[in-house]
Amino acid sequence: MVLLPPPAFAHASDRGHVLLLPTGYYLIGGAFAVAISFLVLALLPPDPLGRFWRRRLPLFTFNDSARTIVSLISFAGFAILITAGLFGSRDPLSNPLPLVIWTLLWAGLTLLQGVFGDLWSWLNPWYGPWRLLSRLTGRGDVGAWRLPQWLGCWPAVVLFFAFAWFELIDPAPDDPARLAFAAGLYWLFTLIAMLLFGYDKWSRSGEFLTMFFSMVARFAPVGRDEQGRLGLCWPGAKLLAAEPLPASGIAFLLLALSSVSFDGLSKTFFWLGLFGINPLEFPGRTAVIGSGSLGLVLTFVLLAGAFLLAVLLGQRLAGSDRPLAQAAGLLVWSIVPIALAYHVAHYLTALLVDGQYALASLSDPLALGWNLLGTADMQVEAGIVAGAGSAWWLWNIQAGAIISGHVLAVLVAHGFAWRLHPQPARAALSQFPLTVLMIAYTIFGLWLLATPTVG
Amino acid sequence: MTDKNGFFDLSKSGFTRRTALKGLAAGAGLAVAPGFVRYAQAQSSAPIKIGFQSHRTGIGAAYGRWYEKTTAAAIKAINAAGGINGRQVEVIIEDDGTDPGRGAEVVGKFATQHKTDIVFGTLFSHVVIGSAPAAGEAKMPYFVVSEGHHVASTKLNRYVFQPGITDVKSQIQSMAPWIAANAGKKVTQIFPDFAFGYDHRDYLPPALKAQGAEVIAQIAIPPTESSFTKYFPQIPAETEVIYHVMVGPAVLTFVKELGEFYGSNRPQLFGFIDSLEAVDINSPGLEFLDGSHFWEGSPRYAQADDTEAQKAYRAAVGIDDNGAAVGDPKDVSTAAHMFGCWETLYVVKKAMEDAGYKGPEDRAKLVEATEALKEFAEGPEHPQGAKTFNGKIHQCFGIQNISKVEGGKLKVVHKTKIEDGLYEAEGDYTTQAL
Fold it and tell me: Which one of A202, A233, A264 terminates a domain?
């Protein structure tokens, strides 16, 4: 049977148009942009810049009274989606569950969090049900059990890894029923954990989506302070007020970035070539579970190793005697803009096309012939990402996102460096190795978008 | 639901894509579509269930999208005209991720969970080959639209059919007479160094030889290659025709570099549109293809002499004169192949009607009825052209188009005869037990 000639139809995809663009110049230009940002920051006096960057524009105050009801509505929507996943269309592009989870939530909401701040704290489907249940049981905000301090947010790291594995390695994460089971069970597990350990505690140590979304929201130019006052600030400015993350938090952020990076890497001809896989006859996800799992771990280990090494070298260069954990815990926040940039670049086309499918599917979630939003029969315009013209625009947006993300990361890292090293010269010196890493990651990110890939 | 010419007129039917094709709950959806009411009253039997093994995700997704559109259009037309044996047809889509392992699982799901009457619609050959054993085991008729030679090779099993699209061996063979007579006698082949390319490597030389032409060089390019300039000096100077079948994202680079290598003084170029399926022929980098020729299963561009059936088919699927989605001109279709979905569904309809098919217990009868089919006349059900069917090897044979790139369009300059693509049967499925 293996001797049969199996013709393949490897599509001359839109990456083909990108291959004709002068992407090499972008790689060089991106590297220079990041390097020059470092040089400029090294020469600038920190105080005026810091003051400028910390400027805020307060807008108005609102309280949390609607939060429970918003979350309950979101929970109701989630329940309908799970029902759709179990009983609606089997087609992952007609069933709203995979489209909402992967496209609107994972690809889309991440970007909204990066712009509008922590919408998820209101929209998540746990807060409302938890509040109702904890009131009914009279437990209040604190759960019956305590999580040991040493656990940090390792549960979230483990759960995020499981999530990334399901998204990137599992053979059929889009299968509506399979996803309904996974998402439904995770919801139940999380609700129980929140009832046992308290909503806030579990949200900060175990619920990986809340962890991820709240970290991303720290980048947003919109934010709400403790008093409930909404305000505007510079993108990334809120990151500077962050406390050092524990080891588990460092691992979490690095895993968030490395998993998206690996998703890009795993589709390149380069990666597949390492395992002797012909990309033009890609054997499917079931055939690459082993290499994919290895790659997911390996990318994380390499990124974490490079990051810690860069911080350690920086500390040495600056002659600092602060513990590595503290410096790394602060500087890791500079990964947030990069993670966001990768998210934009990586999911842009999916968002543009599958976002349309999502809109159509929401009109008829259970495939009963409904047209709730009037979008059920809308024509999905796949042409929006097709052809040389679109490829040029998409490439420029993606490359722009990657380069700006890294420039902002250099800026954020510098903000922390000034906090760690009050002497500007030492602060600049301490950032040299991390900047080299960021230049390398800029080139890597642009290369991922420019190199031949499957699909 | 036909107009005065006897062609399907869906504009007035009230059917939508969704009502024709919506997955598991399709039957319920149909009942609320306005055009359906009279059929709902006319017959009470449950719909015929077709499991559509669809490349919704994975490397086949661009083709999968158009296979889905074509299938939806065909089902809409079939249902609008009364369904099959008086029963409506419901399509259940399962995504196989363009993954052979997953494909076999999906066939299993259709057999045991959805209990579909048949499984249909697979394109990628490795998925067909991976799924065929599961179909055979479940005794599930499996109608693929893959153009691979695997069905006709008789190395799969009795439940696998390819009645809607000619296989690649036949396609290649039928190109030879035209190439030898019109393009040149000395041919150099450039192909990707894996199975897809090997079909062309192996089937073209004997076919050309029979026409008094010859392959003078075969250049295999590693699949991961993204720059090709270093291979071009291997093309012999006396080459009259370059026969190219490159695929993958680097195709545009290949054409551009070939153009830079030759400039304006080039040999004739002949290719398979597989290289550029779903890609705008006017994309930057492809200028060099002007004046060259391509195989096309069904023409991408509307032709001056298109039949009424062809026009009706294009309108039903929703492609404009340039072969792109109506209303979305950048969304270029996979026109050369997707017609196979339409035609296969009409073959299924015919075979089910011949077999008096009632339900899964009649699957063996359906297999025999399909094997008994001999030919399909050109018309609304077979808009690509007439075909013959060899029940022993479960494969149809049809006409092929040779199109010239002219003024930024593909213009059909030659249609092959069915006989050009016939070959000796390599086996006989009908001897296998059912």
Answer: A233
